Automatic annotation (TrEMBL):
<comment type="similarity">
    <text>Belongs to the phosphate/phosphite/phosphonate binding protein family.</text>
</comment>
<dbReference type="InterPro" id="IPR005770">
    <property type="entry name" value="PhnD"/>
</dbReference>
<feature type="signal peptide">
    <location>
        <begin position="1"/>
        <end position="26"/>
    </location>
</feature>
<dbReference type="Pfam" id="PF12974">
    <property type="entry name" value="Phosphonate-bd"/>
</dbReference>
<dbReference type="GO" id="GO:0055085">
    <property type="term" value="P:transmembrane transport"/>
</dbReference>
<protein>
    <submittedName>
        <fullName>Phosphate-import protein phnD</fullName>
    </submittedName>
</protein>
<dbReference type="GO" id="GO:0043190">
    <property type="term" value="C:ATP-binding cassette (ABC) transporter complex"/>
</dbReference>
<keyword id="KW-0732">Signal</keyword>
Length: 337
């Protein structure tokens, strides 16, 4: 079909160019794996390669950074203020914080080019990698290992629920559709414990881990699977009291939120960003916010996110455009409740 014919069909010039460019990228890619058609993965590390065409490399004067919306975004804007200053010094660029209020919105922000550097929650990291060209390079950690967390199931201390099977017939708060510990891992792991979400108990999406915890405390939910690190921070900050809850289940360890950058940033800028993460040491107040972690520990998506991808596959979660659309729809529906 000619460009003239496409124009007569009402397709705009910009879209014609985008379609043509996309086709050229597709023809020039030897391997992309599960990545969107806009990206290439010829080194087979499961993340998008730097574009071959240097005209596509971005070198913005201002870098936009954000952290996953697992709790109150304003809390983390303050928590990362010192790191933003370090990142600015390392790159020679202004760094601003971008507040996001849902996982799908954060993925879309990087996909559209509005977001350059980010910390994505464990579960949504796969969407960001496949659909937004996100390259994870680190998680919060210590000198010899990264910081992990467990999926825990909490109930009120005075609840008659003693085992996972006691959840049958109850209302249980999951956090968000894309959340690893708040939804995907429970769906993959709980059946072996004698309880199937949506079949044995009613799932109510709270939106965030801290909202699940508070909902259990107030009696809105009978129980909730949440990330142990979020729960522990709430206890340490005095937002809730540990004696008001009981933990009836604790999983094996998962990696925490991934930090990384957009794949199409200029390679020289990428090296400065990597150096900033590698050289930064958390000040005492930041260590207090993140369970004693004192640095960013290097990881790879291919190796360190394998268990997360396995859980996603086991639950039928697809890191595709349609999957992201469904995620956005479910997050919007949950926000209205």
């Amino acid at each position: 079909m000619s460009l003239l014919t496409l124009g007569r069909l009402g397709i705009t010039t910009s879209l014609i160019v985008a379609l043509s460019t996309s086709a050229a990228f597709a023809a020039d890619c030897g391997h992309r794996g599960a990545l969107d058609d806009r990206f290439c993965d010829e080194n087979m590390d499961m993340v998008a390669d730097t574009p071959k065409d240097s005209s596509r490399w971005r070198n913005p004067s201002t870098l936009v950074f954000t952290y996953t919306p697992v709790e109150d975004p304003a809390v983390y804007q303050d928590a990362f203020a010192d790191f933003q200053r370090h990142l600015s010094e390392a790159t020679g660029k202004r760094v601003v914080y971008y507040n996001v209020h849902s996982n799908s919105a954060q993925v879309e922000a990087m996909r559209s080019g509005r977001l350059h550097i980010a910390g994505f929650s464990t579960g949504p990291t796969g969407y960001a990698v496949n659909l937004a060209g996100y390259v994870p390079i680190a998680v919060k950690g210590y000198e010899n290992e990264f910081q992990g967390y467990n999926l825990i199931t909490i109930v009120r201390a005075d609840s008659d629920i003693q085992t996972m099977e006691d959840l049958k017939g109850r209302t249980v708060a999951h956090t968000a559709v894309s959340s690893n510990s708040g939804n995907l891992a429970p769906r993959a792991l709980f059946p072996a414990l004698g309880v199937v979400p949506d079949e044995d108990y009613k799932v109510a999406y709270s939106g965030k881990h801290d909202q699940s915890v508070m909902g259990v405390l107030t009696g809105d939910y009978d129980a909730a699977p949440v990330a142990s690190d979020v729960y522990d921070r709430m206890v340490e900050a005095g937002r809730v009291k540990a004696e008001d809850f009981r933990v009836i289940y604790r999983s094996a360890r998962f990696p925490t939120s991934a930090f990384g950058y957009a794949h199409d940033l200029h390679p020289e800028l990428v090296e400065k960003i990597k150096d900033a993460f590698d050289s930064y040491r958390f000040p005492p107040e930041m260590q207090a916010n993140f369970d004693g972690a004192d640095r960013f520990f290097p990881i790879t998506y291919k190796d360190d996110w394998e268990v997360v991808r396995d859980i996603a596959h086991a639950t039928g979660t697809a890191y595709t455009e349609r999957g992201l659309q469904q995620l956005a729809e479910r997050e919007a529906a949950a926000a209205k409740k």
